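Entry type: protein chain
Record version: 2
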Amino acid sequence: MKWSKKPTSKINRIRSWALGLIFAAMIVMYLGVVLLYMAHSRILFGIFLILGTLAFALSFVVYFWIGMLSMRAVTVLCPNCNHYTKMLGRADICANCNEPLTLDPTLEGKEFNEDYNNKRKSEALEKKEGR
């Protein structure tokens, strides 16, 4: 049985990645505390604490970056659910109903593929479809 990944909008995918980074940072810090009590090693505790703090800082940077991208994103009205959603790139998915969206008239009616947002992959897809 093949598990298909549910498509999500790019903004939500990046936010989920940043949230996972926060949880990873907390786990790393807890491992440092456990090592402090089990191995009585302050050096390992310090290393794990610093690694966790760096992961938190990276998560902060990712959240800041996606916030800046979200401010510049084009807001469109989804034709399926009639909610406004933010769109990044040539092709994206509605954050509410997962309907494929595009502002590019050449992609209208085509099956959704995230590769349309990558120039090199998009050219390869268009050559493949043109045959």
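Comment: The mean pLDDT is 82.
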